[in-house]
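Quiz preparation item.
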């Protein structure tokens, strides 16, 4: 991984875990904070975690190189009483 400034992406709530740079691309591994509530229904604190999956997002170029953010998106489901 390449050594870069801590806040090169200017995403204060996200943590950059690593960066890989080639001649024409830059790939950033990014970790997101856990959500406080369900984004769909608003239920708070009733999540069951079952891993993360890397989701690629394209961003604007940096130094003329294509940028991909690999975001470790948590896979969760709500633990609702039935």
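Solution:
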């Amino acid at each position: 991984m390449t050594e870069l400034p801590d806040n090169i992406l200017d995403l204060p709530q996200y943590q950059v875990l690593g960066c890989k740079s080639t001649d024409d691309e830059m790939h950033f591994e990014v970790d997101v904070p856990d959500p406080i509530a369900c984004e769909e229904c608003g239920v708070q604190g009733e999540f069951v975690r079952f891993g993360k999956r890397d989701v690629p997002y394209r961003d604007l170029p940096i130094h003329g190189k294509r940028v991909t953010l690999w975001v470790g998106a948590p896979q969760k489901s709500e633990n609702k009483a039935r």
